[in-house]
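> call design_seq(struct)
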């Protein structure tokens, strides 16, 4: 199956663009996707802390935060769009 990943803020530079299409096996999860994307130590350090997603990381599956779904265990389907960006604050 194919999943489209959109990168925002400094993730664009880290992953080499605004968007990437990733081929995954049927039944893959968000965690599987992140493991496929993070093929360098720098990328892994930016996404994971002690094998858990970093708290500042925001991931949306088809415009729904994965934290309100099944977190990194959220199942993916062909054609899903995943957005990855850092938690943003402001005032």
């Amino acid at each position: 199956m194919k999943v489209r990943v959109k990168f925002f803020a400094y993730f664009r530079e880290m992953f080499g663009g605004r968007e990437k299409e990733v081929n995954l096996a049927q039944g893959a999860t968000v965690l599987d996707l992140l493991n496929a994307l993070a093929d360098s130590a720098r990328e892994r350090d930016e996404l994971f802390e002690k094998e858990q997603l970093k708290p500042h990381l925001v991931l949306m599956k088809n415009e729904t935060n994965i934290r309100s779904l099944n977190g990194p265990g959220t199942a993916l389907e062909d054609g899903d769009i995943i957005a990855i960006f850092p938690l943003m604050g402001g005032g």
